Amino acid sequence: MADRLGAILADGVPRVCSAAVALIAVDGRVAAAAATGELVRYADAEGNLASERPPAGQDSIFDLASISKLFTTTVLLSLAEEGRLGLDEPVATWIPGSDGRITPRRLLTHTAGLPPTRRIDLELPGADASEHMAAMLDTPITHPAGGPYLYSDVGMVMAGRIAELAGGAPLDDLVRARVTSVLGLADTGYRPGALPRIAATEWKRERQGPAPHPGASAGGCVRGEVHDETAYALGGVAGHAGLFATAGDLLAFGEALRLGGGPVLRQESVAEMLRDQGAEGAPFRHGLGVRIGDPGIVGPLTGAFGHSGFTGTSLVVDPARRLTVVLLTNAVHPVRGRDGIRELRHAVAAEASRLRDLAL
Question: pTM for the complete prediction?
Answer without folding.
Answer: 0.97
